[in-house]
Give the backbone structure.
Amino acid sequence: MLDPRDRRWLAEVRRGHHHGPFGHREHLRVAWLLLEDTESTSRAEEEVSRIVRSLAVRHGKPQRYNRTLTDTWVRIVAHCRAASGSDSFDDLLARHPWLLDKRVIRRHYTSRLLASPQARRTRVEPDVLALPTA
């Protein structure tokens, strides 16, 4: 269940009117909140992707959107959430501080694959190490 502060922040992000930075931590927070607010990981992936793509376009940087990266982080957050039983985003980060390291993704994907047009457009499976499941 989302608390009112999280619900407001998520509503602002969904409308593209968030205040403050929107970096990696905020991407993880959106994933956490949508996993809490939707019925499935795939539904959360769809909505996080829509939001992130929209924000990239809104900020004049559509080339920065990458569907594979977006979906992969949602899946990783879902896995950590299920494995740890965390009841808040802050607790999740306290239990899994490595989530804040964007380079962790390199354990699963080569830079070449992540930079490919296909990975930007649609989710591609890892070419180094399979992702954990939720």
User: Anything to note?
Assistant: The chain is about 60% helix and 0% strand. The CA atoms of residues 110 and 127 lie 7 Å apart.
